[in-house]
Amino acid sequence: MSLAERALNNAAIRETAKITTPSWMLNSLERVMEYYTERHLCLDTQACDTMPGPQPGKKYMLYAHVPFCHTLCSFCTFHRFLFKEDKARAYFKSLRKEMEMAKALGYDFEELYIGGGTTTVLVDELAKTIEHARTLFPSIKQVSCESDPLHLTSMEFTQLHGLVDRLSVGVQSFDRDILARTDRLEKFGEPEVIYEKLARAKENFPILSVDMIFGFAGQNQEILQKDMDTLVRLGPTQITTYPLMVTHQTRKSAKGNLANPTQDIARDYELILNALNGHYDQMTAWSFGKRADQSFDEYVVNYDDYLGVGSGSFSFLHDTLYVNSFSLRKYQEKIEAGRMGVESSKYYTPKAVMQYRFLLNLFGGRLSKSYFKDNFGKSLWGGLTKEMAFMKMTGGLIEDPQDPDKLQATPNGLMMGVLMMKNFYAGMDNVRAELRRPLSARDM
Asked: Highest mean pLDDT range out of 62-71, 128-137, 178-187?
């Protein structure tokens, strides 16, 4: 499914969005998703020290993880360590070596996504790594990179101009009280300063994406509307608005201090849809773009198969999840010994993969009937009877009047896509927490 197909431009979406699914149904969906994530996202993996080679005709995306931050945000559950320059420089060298090992397996990639952590802790090493990846994999058409607002307008950041096609900046909110509550005010400055930095950075990258979170304590509808109005005025190329995710790892800090205990997520999401309607095309359930033909944060929607390099990265290749070592020490030892960083794998049955693809396609806003038939040998109704019956009962999907092969998500379907992806990512965060739990000081 192309990106252009995922832009939800028809009348069903362009009209004022109204989410009519009852709260009890949405709550039931969350409980079902919790069941499936606990069932499928668990640590019953097999030891593994190598990746399979590519399959003919398949398209692949390369993910590179940079697990360093100058400070650690309390609501973040990604794999990261406190920044130490000597360790970070050695790590970037290992990252480039692991890319070479992926090349030796026969891989080429259409896109490179660099996440963290904070990818820009050492801009010179990051630039060198991007240049190396483009040399190794000449098919790369776009490089996406995450960042924070701190160094957007610094002189060193200019090294990324012309190298990074899509810069994703985590802002989370323009509300001063929320920034203070999340310890971001002291780190990144006043909302007006962040706004000005984003406005200047917008001129230096083909795509500037701003990431926002809703569901914070104290974030009422008035504050959320003001955030959306500020984004529309700023006019970044893309906007991502996702709900605050409370995981086992952040349950104490988030529930006690950060999360809104009385949030009506459907009402908040409805506000976001209508605030951005007419200004942006909807690309996924929580991604919006000025143009439809662009990549976005959720590369798992864009590519069925992706390979991850770096400590704590995941790969999904064909029907198997591969996990790289979360120990920085073990990861470095593996690379120095001429092996990739992978240390475990988990196979998924065709039914589980079909459910996974259904989740991603619903989140992406459209489902192709022929895609499921061609890839799984079953129709959507034949392979996913319960899921499709729920979609029909809630009015989550409609036939695309312009393409009989496509089913398009309604606002109800998009709301369910948000909840399903939220729980999927929370499940992945819980897996990360379990993998990090055994780490000692010498692993960091």
From this structure: 128-137
* pTM for this predicted structure: 0.87
Six-digit token string for 318:
């064909």
In total, the chain counts a number of residues equal to 444
**Can you tell me the distance from the alpha carbon of 241 to that of 250, in angstroms, rounded to the nearest whole number?**
20
Give the CA count within 13 Å in the CB-facing half-sphere of 237: 22
SS3 172: strand
- The tokens for 213 are 């979170």
Question: Which is nearest to 314 in space by CA: 355, 348, 287?
Answer: 348
C-alpha distance from residue 174 to each of 189, 215, 220, 231, 234 (Å): 11, 14, 13, 9, 12
Beta bridge partner(s), residue 38: none
Give me the mean pLDDT over the 289-300 stretch.
Answer: 62
Question: How far from 284 is each of 21, 58, 114, 195, 250, CA to CA, in Å?
Answer: 19, 23, 20, 25, 26
Q: Between the CA of residue 281 and those of 194, 268, 288, what are the distances in Å? A: 24, 19, 6
pLDDT of residue 14: 53
| Host H or E run for residue 368 | strand 366-368
How far apart CA 236 and CA 213 sit, in angstroms, is: 16
Q: What is the mean pLDDT of the chain?
A: 87
